[in-house]
Amino acid sequence: ACRQMHLGRRFAVLECAACRTQRVLPKALNEQSAAATLYNQCAGLDFTDFVPEQTIKSMLHRLQETQIHFEPGKKVLDVGCGSGILLETLCEQFHCVGWGIDVDQRRIDKARARARHAAFECGLFDAARLDQKYDILLSTAVIEHVVDPLGFLKQLGHALDDGGDLFLLTPNARSLNYRLLRSWWRELLAIGEHIY
Fold first, then answer.
1. How far is CA 99 from CA 26, 36, 79, 132, 133, in A?
2. What are phi and psi of 130, to 5 degrees?
3. pLDDT-derived band of residue 157, with 50, 70 and 90 as boundaries?
4. What are the phi and psi torsion angles at 165 (to 5°)?
5. Of 24, 38, 142, 145, which has fewest CB within 10 angstroms of its CB?
6. Top-confidence range, 13-17, 34-38, 79-83
7. What share of the chain has pLDDT > 70, as a percent?
């Protein structure tokens, strides 16, 4: 059973009574292939230009807490890598072999311009197109943008080598930020792109 919440003029949200998962309505995408159009049609401000050094330190700390071991030669795939800052930092510090993919051409152009340690590709993630499996797979703030989260997770699993590590990060609707900001939290994050 779901209940519908109306949040201002821009959003309506369905919330599952059992697991409290929320889905933004109407869906921003009917199918995942429409993501390229959604993310590349707007030449507006790219907030990834303003990622402070402290944010990268915080991400590295989170990764360290998971006990994922980044070591020289380990193959790292970053799905939804944005401007590639996290992947570049990991490859530089730990001498990993990194590959990042993102659907936003502007962000990939920025990643390629600053790339010294990792390779980047623009497009939708499709595990069937990969020619290898990865030791470590990162996907930060992506799953809330996909039409089929379970299918996305299965694809990530196909890209991961046996015994590999998967790191997923997504906005937390039970976080302190959410409790303080409520609908503003959702509107600031979603910007018409979040689905779940």
1. 33, 19, 9, 11, 11
2. -75, 145
3. very high
4. -115, 135
5. 38
6. 79-83
7. 63
Cα 64 to Cα 69: distance, rounded to the nearest angstrom = 8
15: three-class secondary structure by DSSP: strand
d(CA 13, CA 22): 6
Say how far apart CA 8 and CA 37 lie, in whole Å.
26
11: helix, strand or coil: strand
- Structure pTM? 0.72
The residue to which tokens 């030449």 are assigned: 43
Residue pointed to by tokens 């799905």: 79
91, 74 Cβ separation under 8 angstroms: no
pLDDT at residue 36, rounded to an integer: 56
Whether the Cβ atoms of residue 146 and residue 140 lie closer than 8 Å to each other: no
The whole-number pLDDT of residue 161 equals: 96
- Distance in Å from the first CA to the final CA of the chain: 16
Q: How far apart are CA 153 and CA 181, in angstroms?
A: 29
Cite the DSSP H helix spans in the chain.
35-40, 53-65, 85-94, 105-114, 149-159, 176-181, 183-190
CB 195 within 8 A of CB 29: yes
Choice between 119 and 40, residue whose per-residue pLDDT is larger: 119
Tokens 């303080």 locate to 180
